[in-house]
Specification:
Immunoglobulin-like; single chain; globular; mainly alpha
Amino acid sequence: MGHRFRAAVDWRLSAFLCALAAGVAGTAGCRSLPPSKPASQWTAQEARGARVFGQHCARCHYPTTTRGMKGPGLQAITRIKAMPSGAPPTDEHIAQTILRGRLMMPSTQLDDADLQDLLAYLHTL
């Protein structure tokens, strides 16, 4: 039973990752995504948000590419038509995903200041 369960989970994960890759590719289209804002031009809030990202998000997400790690790459996440979930990339949807988690992504407990800093950083990607 353990092997069958693992195979089913592996298959579902593979299917999810394939759909996610197709969604990211579809939202990016054939054009390249806009470049990230250089760190030298970040505001103090964006720099704080980069630190929050490093502490809570970087183990699963690459910030400046759409290539996935454990989760999708986040380049231009606020400038694409839809997030991998299909939801528009509004601050509200992004914040809900961060705070509540989604599918394999665990919830992340952040106070409001850290969340606002993180959202500001995500806008630089």
